[in-house]
Amino acid sequence: MQVGFAIFVRSAIFNMLFYLSLLVQIVPAFAALFLWRTAMLDVARFWTRTNLWLLRIICDIKVEFRRMERIPPGPLLVACKHQSMWETFALLMILPDPAYVMKRELMWIPFFGWYTWKAGMIGINRSRGSRALAQMTDRAREELDRKRQIVIFPEGTRRAPRAPPRYKHGVAHLYAELRTPCLPVALNSGLFWPRRSWLRYPGTIRVEALDVIPPGLSQDEFFTKLQDEIETATARLLAEGERELAQLGLSITHSPN
Length: 257
Known about the structure:
Elements: H1 2-26, H2 37-59, E1 61-66, E2 76-80, H3 86-90, E3 98-103, H4 112-118, E4 122-124, H5 130-145, E5 149-152, H6 170-178, E6 182-187, E7 203-209, H7 219-247
Parallel strand pairs: 1-7, 2-5, 2-6, 3-4, 3-5
Antiparallel strand pairs: 6-7
Helix pairs in contact: 1-2, 5-6, 6-7
């Protein structure tokens, strides 16, 4: 009961400071709209460092980035497991110049949307089907020409830990069309920053860069290999995190939907 109450209080304090930090930083960041593109990414990284520091100090959530030496320089397709809001900003700490594939509607939000536009993110209209794939591919080529890393969440939305995977073929389409190496990324963030919950649980978020998949595979071969490698590594990282939670007497049940 004491542990549960402490988590409740720490989570409430963190969420208050998280959104306060966002409000405090989002208005001065307006000036970066009139600077170079990478200045906006620098602003976002400062906000990311603030969030990671708050998580560590308040919620006792640490971060371990593993095998970052596997990230090759230059243009790259990054396919990352998606369990939490956490990785939407934390990947800024390991990628030099990322361009996220994101819902176009998010780019309409005042301030936030303007900043994603300035940072060169890739907005897609999912309702357009094959046309959306073509537009996403064209935009990704533009950003690859700038030697950037294209970040895509292959399942398209957050999935709870241990939920059956639902990978979408958009990532295989990008891989085939762009003809660039793909870096799979596994993580266990959903254990400590669960989706659809404001609670934050103590432990270590682990992010692991896996072996790069070179270009040249068929779409089906790539799709199978990507899912198998991400899911196998993610299961291992989840097991590590679950042991941490068990040591604190915590057992967290996540909805599979």
